[in-house]
Amino acid sequence: MNTTRKQIASGPTAPVPKDPQPTVDRIDELARRVLSGDILLPKFQREFVWNRSQILELLDSVNNNYPIGSVLLWQSRQELRSENCIADLEINLPKPDYPVNYLLDGQQRLSSICGSLFWSGSDPKSQWNIAYNLRTRKFQHLDTLDSPPLHLMPTRLLNDSADYFKRVSDIDSSSIADKTDLQTAAKLLFSRIKDYKIAVVTLGDMSLNDVAPIFERINSTGTPLTIVDLMRAATWSTEFDLLDTIDAILDELSDKGFGGIDRKVVLRSLSSAAGGGYSSSSIDSLRNYEATRLIEVAQQVADSFRRTIDFLVQQLKLPTDSAVPYANQLVILADLFRGLPHPSASQYTEIKRWFWSTSAGEYFSGWNTGQMSADKQSVDDFVAGRSIGISFPVVMPSASIWLSRAFRRNTAYAKLFAILLADAEPRDLLTGNRIDVSPSLWWANNREFHHFFPQAYLRTRGTPVQQINVLANIIALSSVSNRQISHAAPSQYLARIRDAAGSQLDAWLESNLISQDAYSAAMADDYDGFLISRAKTLHDKLSKYIY
Q1: pLDDT tens digits for 225-244?
Q2: Which residues touch 61 (CB under 8 Å, ≥6 apart)?
Q3: What's the pLDDT at 213?
């Protein structure tokens, strides 16, 4: 039986208004609310990252009464894990009663005010060890815990008026005028900090999914709030951090070239391994599990991804996650290899057939909740031996797809094309040397993919750009050979290749999935005829893997 989290008991609470509630609040009071745990910093917020200069600039803006932006709170009954530390400044843990106020926008600013006013640490190098120079009217960092000269006013004294004004009264100087000037500056600083107000908007109770787009719209960092961030906050404990867990899995996969997998892919796999499905509603159920169960599930998923990558690299010749046509194919593959750590030969054949068919049929271009539920059932049936096939309702395209889709490295069909070509172990047409498909499939560098009918040649014939770049006109060719071909007509450079290749010509052409009919059309500089023949060859090879 799965272990679930204990529900936090809470007494009756007043209804939470749903409409945004605007107020104007003193910034030091907002900082106190953070320190006391009345305002919480949910785990989906990034850690405190402001540098020392940014902290001083913020304090300077407040002291000069410059606007520093508003704050957005979310008053909610949702139970999310929250930060209990801002750099080296400890803050109180969340209150046991709900609703609570989660800080959505303004974390860096409120954290800076909090640390500057309420720090009482022991590290003299802390970014919160700050003083205001009453002579220069500038904030500065201190490097000692010893009491500084009286013209340097530690900002942490601003939270206690008695201590602050005692130090003000202690200010002495060789000149009465200078003493008065320093005391005036100190009093002005106190009033500016205490009287500074900012606008606060409090959102009413709403779901995580509803609040996510609001966060993304107003988030000044431009960092989108993903379901991974939300679920990190919903599942966090001292024993388990979802983000760290996913990143640890990806770090291990990066050694094999698959560290760029989307975190949400791993999250879907975690949800399925825990007994749920692939949809957002299933993922949300992860909040119900204890850390021990989540750690166990994460280990299963890590193992399944290792087996998935071995399958992709060894059997399909994919050297990197960037070559996978659809990211969510990895969700299904991880599920399959979690349930079938050692598939039989027939099961391997079916898994490969599923991969090719879903790639060609663009099945994952729009993966909805209904599909996810049916697909999960199909995977479970296959793993349990209740079916001999993985039943996904895929509609296969015709060979014309190779004549209408352009070669753009990040598109699913370009990736599918490259995998087909890699499987044929292509040779450079000018030299006969094998093309190293690994860098070819590393999509940040596509130097080894070039046009069979040169672009410059086709442009002189008035061929439209969209027809020049179709997949059927792309081959594996080294950059050196491509420069040698330049803008020559195929009939010209192919004659040189024919003489150089001799009896190996057919093998060189077939390794690039070019049939004799396509070669004959190219020798006649018949571009349309070449495309039709090449498209048929590509589609025949794909069909061999599917049917």
Answers
A1: 678 877 887 787 778 989 99
A2: 67, 68
A3: 66
Q: What is the pLDDT of residue 435?
A: 82
Query: In this structure, how many other beta carbons lie within 10 angstroms of the beta carbon of residue 106?
Result: 23
CA distance 2 to 66: 54
Taking the CA of residue 151 as centre, how many other CA atoms within 13 Å lie in the half-sphere pointing to its CB?
14
Return the residue matching tokens 């939300």: 230
418, 411 in Cβ contact below 8 A?
A: no
451: helix, strand or coil: strand
With a threshold of 0.85, does the pTM exceed it? no
Q: What is the pLDDT of residue 174?
A: 59
The backbone torsions φ and ψ at residue 450, rounded to the nearest 5 degrees and listed phi first, read: -140, 170
**Farthest-apart Cα atoms in the chain, separation:** 104
> Does residue 99 have a cis bond before it (omega within 30 degrees)?
yes
Contacts of 165-168 spanning 24+ positions with Cβ under 8 A: 165/190
Residues 427, 497 contacting (CB under 8 angstroms): no
What whole-number distance in Å separates Cα of residue 75 and Cα of residue 11?
Answer: 16
**DSSP string for 309-328:** HHHHHHHH---SGGG-S-TT
Q: Cα torsion for 108, 110, 112, 118, to the nearest 10°?
A: -150
- Using DSSP bridges, classify how beta strands 39-40 and 100-105 pair: parallel, antiparallel or unpaired: parallel
**3-class secondary-structure state, position 203:** strand
As to burial, measured by CB atoms within 10 angstroms (0-12 exposed, 13-18 middle, 19+ buried), residue 153 is: buried
Residue 420 pLDDT more than 50? Answer: yes
Strand partners, 71: 200
Residues 470/407, Cβ–Cβ less than 8 Å: yes
Query: Under a CB-based contact definition with an 8 Å cutoff, are residues 421 and 437 in contact?
Result: yes
pLDDT the model gives residue 412: 93
Closest CA to 132 of 148, 115, 110: 148
Pairing outcome for strands 474-476 and 449-451: antiparallel
Q: Residue 310: how many CB atoms within 10 A of its CB?
A: 12
Ranges of beta strands (E only) in 46-193 are 71-76, 85-86, 89-90, 100-105, 130-133, 138-141, 152-154
d(C-alpha 500, C-alpha 496), whole Å: 6
Domain ranges of the chain: 15-222, 227-384, 401-538
For residue 226, give Cα distances in angstroms to 31, 202, 211, 264, 322. 27, 21, 11, 8, 21
Cβ-based neighbours of 332, under 8 Å, separated by 6 or more? 354, 375, 379, 390
Cα dihedral 213, 216, 217, 220 in deg (nearest 10): 160
